[in-house]
Design goal:
Elements (H helix, E strand, L loop, with lengths): L17 E5 L12 E8 L2 E6 L9 H7 L12 H4 L3 E3 L3 E11 L8 E3 L4 E4 L3 H7 L7 E11 L2 H7 L3 E5 L2 H5 L6 H8 L4 H7 L4
Parallel strand pairs: 4-8
Antiparallel strand pairs: 1-2, 1-9, 2-3, 3-8, 5-7, 5-8, 6-7
């Protein structure tokens, strides 16, 4: 689907700035045990970035070379740049990059303010700034995104496919990719093992 446009405040949905957390019984393998930050939830649809799936065999220096930002992937990047995770953001437009970052960086007409001090930039400007140490304090690069048509994610929540909770920047940007799902579930007071054992019972 086409990523929904970012609307004015009066069209923001209740999931804006929230995390979607897959229930243990998630049948779509692409989203099994996924934690997704919702960037836009409007009357047109919903767009989010998966936070706990690393992009396989892809590192930021390689991407910077491919985009012509730097000439050599062996270049020593600033410390903050080396800490940026490259994630598989979702199954839609996997060749497109989305930089989710703190609000201390802004490009006119290219950066979209989201929620709780977070912004989204999809132009190369942010990567150029990161490469020279002038980018945002915290950032991640997602390749692709997760998208739902209008009303689709609400239906999936009603069918108990997802839990939702407030987003925490520490969870969003930390390096514990592999443990993120369990930690978010724990914050929700949910034991995935208990839910799994209860699944399917009448």
């Amino acid at each position: 689907m086409k990523a929904p446009s970012f609307k004015a405040q009066d069209d923001r949905g209740f999931l804006d700035g929230q995390l979607l957390v897959a229930m243990p019984g998630m049948t779509d393998e692409r989203f099994s045990r996924s934690v997704i930050y919702i960037c836009a939830h409007t009357s047109e649809g919903t767009m989010g970035l998966v936070l706990n799936q690393r992009a396989p065999q892809v590192k930021l220096p390689q991407i910077l070379v491919q985009l012509g930002v730097v000439e050599d992937s062996s270049i020593v990047l600033p410390t903050k740049a080396r800490q940026i995770n490259v994630l598989r953001g979702g199954p839609v437009e996997t060749g497109r990059g989305f930089v989710l970052h703190s609000s201390d960086f802004y490009v006119e007409a290219a950066t979209m303010p989201l929620d709780e001090g977070l912004c989204l930039t999809t132009t190369i400007d942010v990567l150029k700034a990161i490469a020279i140490g002038e980018g945002p304090d915290r950032a991640l690069l997602a390749l692709g995104y997760a998208g739902w048509e209008a009303g689709q994610v609400e239906n999936e929540i009603r069918q108990n496919a997802w839990l939702s909770c407030a987003a925490d920047p520490d969870i969003i940007f930390d390096d514990g990719i592999e443990t993120k799902y369990d930690r978010v579930m724990k914050r929700l007071g949910v034991d995935p093992a208990m839910l799994s054992s209860a699944a399917g019972r009448a």
